[in-house]
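Hi R.,

As promised, here are both runs. First protein below:
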Amino acid sequence: MQLISATVDDADDIAGLVRSLAAQLGADPAAPETRPFWDSLSTTALAGYLADERYRFTVARDCARLAGVVALRDTTHLFNLYVDLAYQRQGLAKRLWQHARQQAGGLGAERGFTVNASLHAVPVYRRFGFELAGPAHVTHGIAIQAMKLAPRPSRSLDLG
């Protein structure tokens, strides 16, 4: 399994991966209220994010097959983390998250991270150390839970 920086050419594969997870997301693509969500994850929208320097996408590929994707926005917001059903429960989400965290460098450690999680993903994010950041709410027909990962305490030397 290779983790590689995503390019605009990956947009269609990423959109297909997210669509394949509609049932887990509780986001019926045919429901009118979820249209803004699906539009934001269309091939066209994803190509725009992939071209925008505010976003850093990494894909996990098993040969040519897209197994997962992770993306950070502005270094501290976990924008996307999706794993193909065939690769779930094998540690790939954790590996992608660790990779994204490493790419964030010191800024993530200083400021912490945020994520808007589907309710299905809340247990995964809790295992990563995220905590709830308010009550769950519905946005565009999808139940969302805001979560945060507190910054790491700075390590200062006690010279006293």
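And here is the second one, sequence first, then its structure tokens:
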Amino acid sequence: MLKIKYIVLLLILSLNLHSQNNDTPTGYVKYSQSFKFKDGLYFNFLQVKNNSPIKKSQIVTNLDYKRYDFFERLFEEKTITVYDNMGVKKVVSTNDIWGFSNKGVLYINLNEEFNRIPVFGSISHFIANKTYVEYDPYRYGSYNSYNNYNRYDNQTTKTVLIQYLLDFETGKIYDFSYKSVELLISKDPDLYEEFSKLSTRKKKKLKFLYIRKYNKKHPVYFPKQ
């Protein structure tokens, strides 16, 4: 009798271990480094989450689909005409497109540019240009030949690289700061408590580490297609 109980216990432990190692929901695939996004245009974040873009063949264009710079040339236009997944013809502003995927790599549209997302997960990290106008209060404007004052002479335009975070649960974008990381990992009580106990200096230094920890504990899943 004792032997039978021992065998049953081993079977239960084996099933539990199998369940823990195979926690991918039915009908879904877990994101990994080998995962490839389907190539095409993503009009909204829901299409990204479902990995269901508008394919190149659905885009109305005279460009060769096989061009290496196909998307770059396509986005030179202010609008793009496509047939959506229901077969309905639509004209969409290029600025309204969420992003696209090319050769399995995801790009996001931000600050009127398409930026690659190199670090993907529940919390994704990417870099994008940001252009802003800087006002110099000590620099005076000038008068033109018509004696009209030009107040823009004391303004300069600057472009800088900014780091961003993308919350894959909500689609919201945050600046890459320790406060943003703290907010995003607060959905995991253990990691949040661990991070919140760190000094401000260590929080700034270990931002990436805790993003990796969070992504490992909370993987992203995509529907099998």
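A quick note on the second one: The two ends are 48 Å apart (CA to CA). Let me know what you think.

Best,
J.
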